[in-house]
Amino acid sequence: MIFGCFILNYNDSTRSIELANKLAECDLINFVVIFDNGSEPDLKEILLTAKKSEKIKIFYSCNNLGYNKGTNEGLRKCSKFNPDYIFVCNSDIDVDENILITMADGIKKENDISIVGTDYLEKERRMSGAYNYPKFAEQFANVSGLSKIYKGNRKLDLVKISENLFLADYIRGSLFLANYKDISNVGFYDEDFFLYFAEVSLAKKLKRKNKKICYLPDLFYLHNHIYNKNNELKKFKIFYNDLILYWKKYEKLNFIKRSLFFFAFIVGLILRFMFKH
User: Fold this and answer.
1) CA-CA-CA-CA torsion for 122, 239, 180, 60, nearest 10 degrees?
2) What pLDDT does residue 153 have?
3) What's the CATH code, domain 3-133+157-227?
């Protein structure tokens, strides 16, 4: 079987190529694809100059296509290497080969498993890498800025299917292993979204095909995310637009919910503007 790795890079070339070099050393991995999503020219050069293995293949986009479309373009490039399975990785993770091997063993346990994910460690805190589908009240709290007051029901709805392997609604996108044919057949991520709701919309599409999303809670990888507060209001507007689109396409968005989301957006916009200044 052919296992590949995919990394989407946007102005994070040093960490992307360091991760690619580490993954290329793993015996399990047959190839690593980096897709540069319109980075600055000097950062693109880093990918080539720091590359240490012929397993690593680099492709470029002239423009920033957005997270979902950029990921899809890169995943389509992976088809050149005929993968059976593909590890989809953010540039800001670190993972050991034994974790990848256990994930590979997990996805092969049943023919209808499309995605396997694990926990992650961020700022020395162990975090669940599995999630329930978004609920209206939780999303209202996130948009309005009231999520620190209202946490919602965070208990995972997990179903055990074998030793240390559970069914989940969807998996965090910073690292997961996917059956390449399965995600290709549903068109990868939904390109109508620019930045958000990639993983949950993919899970919804796969489950319509009776595929399984699975979770290995005994494992974790490192997520070294750097929170950038630049353009926070712009990102918030993108999140809101993607949120409305998700509820239109994958949930039920009636007039009342749409109005409440808009009210939450105005409140959230005001609060974010006030705290920014």
Assistant:
1) -90
2) 59
3) 3.90.550.10
